[in-house]
Amino acid sequence: MSVAGASVPASAPIRASEALRKKLAKIGLHSEADLLVHLPLRYEDETRITPVARAPWGEAVQVEVVVSSCEVQFRPRRQMVVRALDASGELVMRFFSFYPSQQGALSEGSRVRAFGEVRGGFFGAEMVHPRFQKVGEEDPLPTELTPIYPSTAGLANSALQKLIGKALDGGDLSDTLPDELRQRLKLPGLARSLHFLHRPPPGTDLATLHARNHPAWRRVKFDEVLAQQLSLRRAYLARREQGAPVLVAQDDLGARLLDGLPFGLTGAQLRAMAEIGADLAQPYPMQRLLQGDVGAGKTIVAALAACQAISAGWQAAFMAPTEILAEQHYVKLRGWLEPLGIKVAWLSGSLKSAAKRAQLAATAAEAQLVVGTHALIQDGVDFAKLGLAIVDEQHRFGVAQRLALRKKGNNPHQLMMSATPIPRTLAMSYYADLDVTVLDELPPGRTPIKTRLVADSRRDDVVGFVTKHVAEGRQAYWVCPLIEESEALQLQTAQETYEQLSADLPDLRIGLVHGRLKADEKQAVMAAFAAGEIDVLVATTVIEVGVDVPNASLMVIEHAERFGLSQLHQLRGRVGRGQYESSCVLIYAGPLGEIARQRLKIIYENTDGFEIARQDLQIRGPGEFVGSRQSGVPLLRYADLEMDADLVEMARDVAEHMLTDHAELAERHLQRWLGSREELLKS
Ligand code: ADP
Ligand code: MG
Predict the structure, then answer these.
(1) Residue 2 has pLDDT above 80, yes or no
(2) Residue 120: what pLDDT?
(3) Where is 359: in which H helix or E strand?
(4) What is the pLDDT of residues 481-538, one digit of tens each?
(5) pLDDT tens digits, 375-397
(6) 43: which residues sit within 8 A by CB, 6+ positions away?
(7) Are 650 and 521 part of one and the same domain?
(8) How far, in Å, CA of 538 to CA of 556, rounded?
(9) How sure is the predictor about 308, in pLDDT bands with cuts at 50, 70 and 90?
């Protein structure tokens, strides 16, 4: 694929021995270009020598000593112990792993410069595993700070430094940003920036280099983010070159669905519907993410999209990550659409074989909407004419699964939905190849949810609160502690919580639902809760997504400190769906760690999912939002999405401009930064 056009020769391979090249490959260094953008983690000051006796403890310094003895000891464990002297005193250097070559370099009489922290050991001043170098008596000190590179076992920093130095002197440092653009962005040239970072000029101070807001770092970070934007943008454009069915409604199915609803759409829903509707009528596949906080009303928007596909003579598929959620959707969608004469099929792993055969046959023939779980993407599921694939809670599926659903049709349109809000910077980078529609308005009549934090020593108060709540005619959820390590333990805890609450609240009707129940058992419990036949529903996190019972207005979560923020937010969103005042009680067990304390504070203080996600990103980093498994996008090495948000914004505009007006530079830029890794981005 080459939307950008020009093809550019790959960067020169690294000239080094086979063994060295293997080690370099381990840390992703294959070409000269890779070396050039392999930047230091930090710098060390080897421009000065500190006398051993005056080395401040706990601070890394360089000493120059002459070895007086070097021996390998075996007690208490195998180690090489080197005694050495300078004019001020004695130093012991200890190595717990070492190569014969190092042992040789440290033989008696050798003069070495060692860099590390001096500590007070049993025998006086000690350095453990210093970085060292054999020197001659007259060898001059370096005049520059020493860059310390990310490395791997057996690959010395000095070796990397030498290779990178060579690449700097002879490699391709040509700028890939057009000059006038670079000046407008107020960024320094690339060659200058790389020289500065790899070989900081004498006199540069450590703090400046480590602060990462130096213009040279900004340039590097910008280039890195730009490569990501270029790649995503290119994938986006390439998708537009593929054909897709043009889905234009041929009758008033959508209007009839709307007419039958007991509510009118919110402004946000109407806007979303219009955007999606326009996409579906294009001759290339839609790839749109519909984002909306818990309860924003995504399902009806998806149903209307399905109506458009169906009305155009195509099928729609609706996939959800759990059986409970898929089932709820099935019931709801069937309730909406069957009265309008639409045939809805249902596929889940728990179907008995005869029923399954019938549903598969319907899917391959007359069904117009097929709802289900992962069962939809299994082999042997054939769609007659799939025109629109809808994926609910898309972040719970991997790239491969979403792709598998798409493969069930011939380039169908895709609508993905998520209640896990993606902070803006993340959306712009990891999801830049998607179009995003945000439902930024909740349906009217939602009541704000009061959140309380309660220490587990006051569990009795919470039980009292539940009693009062039920006496007022409402229902409650009681979510059991999350035990990630063991499903069996999780189950046991759920059972115990159920028994304990049944004993504490003998007059109330208590129900239990967890992941190990059979599908029809789960469904029976959920149906009883929805019908008001259960007062308190004890649940594991299976209720996290999708459940919709307006009369349930109290959510109790035990061991809230074990849950992630988005999980807590999702769970809390299960209440506040009716006209009743709703509360969420978060029971926590102390003592709380710092992160847990911060999380609880965030969820306590915020109700807006986007704000929660933004703060969550700050304490966790982007990994858990998108994980490279999810996105296929390698994480950034230098730029930080939150701190460098302005660079992401800049890069996005520049990427668009470069692909149209500077295709060759764009190609070279991608080659330099992503090289062979770009394949990863296209999945
Ligand atoms: P989510 O965005 O979390 O998937 P749902 O689609 O499940 O939310 O909608 C939550 C509830 O709100 C459902 O009961 C749904 O029928 C209802 N709903 C959706 N849109 C509106 C609206 N415009 N007015 C009133 N209720 C609505
Ligand atoms: Mg939903």
Answers:
(1) no
(2) 81
(3) helix 353-363
(4) 776 667 777 778 889 999 999 999 999 999 999 878 887 888 889 889 999 999 999 9
(5) 999 999 999 999 999 999 877 78
(6) 145, 146, 147, 148, 200, 206, 209, 210
(7) no
(8) 9
(9) very high
Q: Of 106, 141, 176, which residue constitutes the final position of a domain?
A: 141
pLDDT confidence band for 645 (50 / 70 / 90): confident
From the CA of 301, which ligand is nearest?
A: 1
Q: How far is CA 466 from CA 3, 475, 553, 621, in A?
A: 61, 9, 10, 37
CA nearest ligand 1 atom 14, residue: 548
If you measure from the C-alpha of residue 421 to the centroid of ligand 2, how many angstroms do you get, rounded to a whole number? 13
Rounded to the nearest whole angstrom, what is the distance from the C-alpha of residue 604 to the centroid of ligand 1?
24
Whose alpha carbon is nearest atom 18 of ligand 1?
297
Which ligand approaches the C-alpha of residue 290 most closely? 1
Report the alpha-carbon distance of residue 227 to residue 50 in Å, rounded. Answer: 43
- Per-residue tokens: 578: 């009716």
- Whether residues 238 and 357 fall in one domain: yes
Closest residue (by CA) to atom 13 of ligand 1?
A: 297
Residue 679 has pLDDT above 50, yes or no: no
Domain containing 373: what range? 212-445+639-683
Instruction: Enter the tokens of residue 582.
Output: 């709703």
**Ligand nearest, relative to CA of residue 291:** 1
Of the three residues 113, 141, 169, the one that is the final residue of a domain is: 141
Q: Quick one: what percent of the chain has pLDDT higher than 90? A: 57
Q: What is the CATH number of the domain that holds 644?
A: 3.40.50.300
In ligand 1, the atom with minimum distance to the C-alpha of 264 is: 23
